[in-house]
């Protein structure tokens, strides 16, 4: 049996088990319609619940996903005032859950010139609520080990697997120096609750708005991180002047909420840019891994967007200027 065929069989078996669990939970087996699938191993299905309301059934294979963590982070985010799915029932051992339905329209689907200001302002207000709710000991730290593991995805999967290049010692020495500088910069920022993928695809047009999904990997990390993810999106690009205006609005909200943002906007811009370099390198590696390990080819087409972000940002700072020649070497190698 091929890996692809084995994967299909495994998913079919998971779906049958999910149907049995729903029948035991609700007393009936409604029709399950695919709701969404993300870049992880999770899948979501929409079904009719009691009284005609719709619910979302989550299938999160325990070998790959931690449903107990999903439930715990959902509770934390709701306590912070975010509109996240309510977990009605969960079987953490099997990796199944029934969630409230936040609707069918993501920000990525809906956003346009007429509504961008209102939608993004609502997202920033929600983000400030999340950051203001930060309490020590509630989420694992976005520490040097995690940051380095993410950065390693770039040479392993983008450079090695996608580009088929084995960098020489000089390149790898420069790479390790870059990683050390990026990690130090990330850890120097004030640490708050970080969603880690606060992008348009994970924000829902809902009441109240936004609904927030895909939050289960939240950590305690750099305060500029989620602001960066919102404005350096994986699937949508903004005009720079608009980003500057919206980041300034975020800083106004953050200062009003008493968050530990700097008095000078330029300092926050530095934080924003340098944590962006770390994330853009990580995402390029993740998208290559999705293509080659998980056979999710659609993501690799978005990598040039992140390489463009890197080329725009890296020359601005001494800590990252060497990255330009490193990328040039990969392109010419």
Characterization of this structure:
It contains eleven helices and nine strands. The two termini are 37 Å apart. The protein has two domains: 3-100, Phosphorylase Kinase, domain 1; 107-332, Aminoglycoside 3'-phosphotransferase, Chain: A, domain 2. The protein is globular. It is an alpha+beta fold and 333 residues long.
Q: What attributes characterize this protein structure?
A:
single chain; 333 residues; alpha+beta; Phosphorylase Kinase, domain 1; Aminoglycoside 3'-phosphotransferase, Chain: A, domain 2; 2 domains; two-stranded antiparallel sheet
- The assigned CATH architecture of the largest domain is Alpha-Beta Complex
The CATH homologous superfamily name of the largest domain equals Aminoglycoside phosphotransferase (APH), C-terminal lobe
| Rg of Cα set | 21 Å
The N- and C-terminal alpha carbons lie at a distance of 37 Å
Q: Give me the count of strands.
A: 9
Total of domains: 2
The succession of helices and strands, N to C, reads HEEEHEEHHHHEEEEHHHHH
Mean pLDDT: 93
Q: Classify the secondary structure makeup into a structural class.
A: alpha+beta
Shape: globular
Measured by DSSP, the beta-strand proportion falls in: 5-15%
**Count of DSSP H/I helices:** 11
What is the name of the CATH topology of the largest domain? Aminoglycoside 3'-phosphotransferase, Chain: A, domain 2
Spatial strand order of the main sheet? 1-2-3-5-4
- The CATH C-level name of the largest domain is Alpha Beta
Point out poorly predicted stretches: 1-6
Percent of residues in helices = 40-55%
Major sheet details: 5 strands, antiparallel
């Amino acid at each position: 049996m091929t890996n692809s065929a084995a994967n299909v069989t495994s998913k079919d078996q998971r779906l049958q088990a999910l149907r049995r669990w729903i029948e035991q939970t609700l007393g009936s087996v409604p029709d399950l319609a695919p709701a969404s699938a993300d870049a992880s191993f999770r899948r979501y299905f929409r079904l009719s619940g009691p009284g005609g309301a719709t619910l979302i059934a989550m299938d999160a294979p325990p070998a790959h996903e931690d449903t107990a963590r999903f439930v715990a982070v959902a509770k934390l985010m709701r306590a912070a005032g975010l509109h996240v799915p309510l977990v009605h029932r969960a079987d953490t051992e099997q990796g199944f859950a029934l969630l409230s339905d936040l609707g069918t329209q993501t920000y990525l689907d809906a956003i346009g010139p007429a509504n961008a200001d209102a939608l993004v302002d609502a997202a920033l207000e929600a983000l400030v609520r999340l950051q203001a709710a930060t309490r020590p000991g509630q989420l694992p730290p976005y520490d040097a080990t995690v940051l380095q593991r993410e950065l390693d995805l770039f040479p392993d999967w983008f450079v090695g697997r996608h580009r088929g290049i084995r960098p020489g010692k000089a390149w790898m020495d420069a790479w390790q120096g870059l990683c050390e500088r990026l990690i130090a910069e990330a850890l120097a920022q004030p640490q708050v609750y970080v969603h880690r993928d606060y992008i348009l695809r994970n924000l829902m047009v809902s009441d109240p708005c936004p609904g927030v999904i895909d939050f289960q990997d939240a950590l305690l990390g750099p305060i500029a991180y989620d602001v960066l993810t919102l404005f350096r999106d994986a699937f949508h690009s903004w005009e720079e002047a608009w980003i500057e205006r919206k980041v300034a609005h975020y800083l106004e909200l953050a200062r009003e909420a008493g968050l530990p943002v700097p008095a000078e906007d330029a300092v926050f811009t530095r934080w924003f840019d340098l944590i962006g370099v770390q994330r853009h390198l990580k995402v390029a590696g993740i998208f290559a891994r999705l293509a080659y390990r998980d056979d999710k080819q659609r993501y690799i087409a978005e990598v040039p967007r992140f390489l463009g972000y890197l080329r725009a940002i890296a020359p601005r700072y001494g800590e990252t200027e060497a990255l330009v020649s490193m990328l040039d070497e990969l392109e010419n190698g």
